[in-house]
């Protein structure tokens, strides 16, 4: 799954050119961290967000690395607008018997 996520981002970036440098920096930072299985942009064409699949134990290190890499590429002020949301996968849509 993670490898497909990352390849999907590369395709969106290279083949469809709907990514932006800010998202590319965040995805590159994430995929170079230990414990990350994959990362990609979402909200294609709108500068949206990245989604990163990672091991729970890597959360703090990945957030730190993503923020630091973003600051290196841009600046501290720009990095203040970055927000991180920790999510846990759920079973998804299903039929519920009442």
From TrEMBL:
One of its GO terms (molecular function) is ATP binding. InterPro entries: GHMP_kinase_C_dom, GHMP_kinase_C_sf. Signal peptide: none annotated. It holds the Pfam family GHMP_kinases_C. One of its GO terms (cellular component) is cytosol. Keywords: ATP-binding, Nucleotide-binding. One of its GO terms (biological process) is galactose metabolic process. Residues 2-71 form the GHMP kinase C-terminal domain. This is GHMP kinase C-terminal domain-containing protein. It comes from Stomoxys calcitrans.
